[in-house]
Write a structure and sequence with these properties.
Layout (H helix, E strand, L loop, with lengths): L1 H10 L3 E5 L2 H12 L3 E5 L5 H9 L3 E5 L1 E2 L2 E2 L1 H8 L4 E5 L10 H8 L4 E5 L16 E5 L12 E5 L2 H8 L9 H9 L1 H18 L4 E2 L9 E4 L3 H13 L4 E4 L9 E4 L8
Parallel strand pairs: 2-3, 2-6, 6-7, 7-8
Antiparallel strand pairs: 1-9, 4-5, 8-9, 10-11, 11-13, 12-13
Length: 264
């Protein structure tokens, strides 16, 4: 119960449902909403956004983005004909979204589901700007348990249905509590490291360089640039992934995975 209480505080929501993974939390949300059409970002989302709604009978439509940052005008056009919108804060873990503007567009039109795996417990997450929050405690997430996730919401009407999806192995409870306690320090370290990376690589095309996140994505336009970026990462002990990838950006880029660092 202590973990649930802490997660309620972090999520700013009345109800917390613990699940075996973030994907289970996402599946639970789409199952209890019983909608027909779901909006997702066209990049910088999570893999399940494209798969789970379809499996549950939803029509899925993509909202245009600027390398993950939601195109508000496109969202305005599509929100009125949709049941829900799921997106990640920060986009692809690397760029903070304007969550207030997104919620203002969607409220009274469609339900906003915010994926806060990369922002729970940080200034980037404001519970006022989503109806439901989902979170993963998987590997390389700020709450790095290697297992589990949750959904959080205020609507009492959803609680009974959501409880059918509640499932969490108590052997992970101690590690979950430990990881929650480390959050503040982790975000401080992530911020220091991302700022240094952006300064070191200021001559390259960093995607959304002024927007906060817990990873850094840098475009390359030649094999030489790509190799220099890879050498920078290896020389500084930084893990990276290559784009294009839906979960980061759909362009030639290096995603420097700051969130994978063991910071305490």
């Amino acid at each position: 119960m202590e973990n649930e209480s802490k997660l309620k505080q972090l999520s700013g929501k009345k109800h917390i449902i613990l699940t075996p993974s973030g994907d289970h939390a996402i599946k639970a949300v789409f199952s209890i909403l019983k909608g027909k059409k779901c909006l997702i970002p066209d990049q910088a989302g999570w893999l399940s956004y494209r798969k789970l709604p379809l499996k549950l009978g939803y029509e899925v439509e993509e909202v245009k983005t600027d390398f993950g940052i939601i195109d508000l005008e496109d969202l305005k056009k599509k929100a009125k004909n949709s049941d829900c919108f799921i997106y990640q804060q920060p986009a692809g873990y690397f760029a903070e979204q304007d969550t207030e503007a997104i919620y203002e567009i969607c409220k009274e039109k469609c339900i906003v589901i915010m994926d806060i795996a990369g922002s729970i417990g940080s200034r980037l997450y404001n519970p006022k700007f989503c109806d439901i929050a989902v979170c993963s405690f998987g590997k390389w997430k700020p709450i790095d348990v290697g297992y589990g996730g949750c959904l959080a919401f205020d609507d009492d009407m959803l609680n009974e249905s959501a409880k059918e999806f509640e499932e969490f192995d108590d052997k992970y409870a101690e590690k979950l509590a430990e990881q929650i306690s480390l959050l503040n320090n982790k975000y401080k370290k992530y911020s220091e490291i991302t700022k240094k990376i952006k300064k070191d690589l200021s001559t390259y095309e960093i995607i959304h360089p002024t927007l906060s996140g817990i990873s850094v994505v840098v475009k390359f336009t030649s094999q030489g640039e790509k190799e220099k970026l890879i050498n920078y990462c290896r020389g500084n002990g930084l893990e990276f992934t290559l784009c294009p990838r839906y979960i980061r950006v759909l362009d030639n880029a290096i995603s420097i995975e700051v969130k994978r660092l063991k910071v305490m």
